[in-house]
Amino acid sequence: MTKAELIDEVSKVVEMTRKDSETIVETIFDSIVNSLHKGEKIEIRGFGSFRTRQRQPRVGRNPKTGSRVEVPSKRIPFFKPSKELRDLVNHSAVQPDAASHEAAESPAPATLGRETGNG
After folding, report:
1. What sign has the CA pseudo-torsion 8, 11, 14, 15?
2. How confident is the prediction for the chain on average, in pLDDT?
3. pLDDT tens profile 26-57
4. Are strands 68-71 and 58-61 parallel, antiparallel or unpaired?
5. In angstroms, rounded to a whole number, what is the distance separating the alpha carbons of residues 114 and 67?
6. How far apart are CA 55 and CA 77, in angstroms?
7. Are 91 and 65 spatial neighbours (Cβ–Cβ below 8 Å)?
8. Is 5 in contact with 12 (CB distance < 8 Å)?
9. Backbone angles phi, psi at 28, to 5 degrees
């Protein structure tokens, strides 16, 4: 799914203009990026968490010349999916007998931690 497809999906589900949906999606992404930049951890229950990890400096190789290149330390973004998300993604791998039992206990994938109703 691309960002444009996500914007279209939000627009359709929430029944708002594409422009308003784009503003919402951009605001969410900007908030995540800004929090990571500040070194904060973002936790979205039922989905996963974002944080940064520190990479140590290392010696790399230039692929064209093969010469050594000093790669400095840096922070990289890291996403850890929640158990609920992992289970939803792997739901199709469940055995047929267990699938009917789990379907009765598990929320539908579309709800992913959201409550339905007016609100």
Report:
1. negative
2. 85
3. 999 999 999 999 999 999 999 999 999 999 99
4. antiparallel
5. 52
6. 10
7. no
8. no
9. -65, -50
